[in-house]
Amino acid sequence: MCALNIVLFVLLFRNLGIQLNKQDRVQKTLIMQQEELDRLVSERTRQLEALAWHLQSVGENEKTELARELHDELSSILTASKMDVAWVRNKLPDSDPAMAEKFARARQSRSGHCIEAPNHRGHAADRARQFRPGHGAALARR
């Protein structure tokens, strides 16, 4: 009976050792998988950050181009208007003070800048900054 107990005891410890080795392998496998997942998450995070920066850059470039196009178009319109007002002013007599006042107002833009300087870069730059994110509030304070 004592020999049987010893054999059972040896088998029990052997089985326990096998179970511990199996748990150890499973734990090491889980740790390796976790490390791989962490690496993949870090890589995807870097890719998403790069994509976000790229998209923001593209958006800023599009806004800048739009601001330039708007500036050019408005400058053309203002220049043509100035030339039309000057032509009409030269064709009409100076005798009517109300008409002279209307011509004087027509030569002024709504913001108080004279149409005679349609390429005023400072004003155009201020308007272009309006299209940049976070700058609308600064422009509204003016």
Q: Sketch the topology as an H/E string, one letter per element.
A: HHHH
Q: What is the mean predicted local confidence, pLDDT?
A: 81
Strand content: under 5%
What overall form do the CA principal axes indicate? rod-shaped
Poorly predicted runs are 114-120, 136-142
Report, as a whole number of angstroms, the end-to-end distance. 101 Å
Question: What would the keywords be for this entry?
Answer:
142 residues; disordered C terminus; 0% strand; 4 helices; mainly alpha
Descriptive notes:
With 142 residues, the protein is mainly alpha-helical. It has four helices and no strands. α1 packs antiparallel against α3.
Compose a concise summary of this entry.
With about 140 residues, this protein is mostly helical. It has helices spanning about 1-90, 95-105, 120-130, 135-140.
Write the layout of secondary structure elements.
Elements: H1 2-91, H2 97-106, H3 121-129, H4 136-140
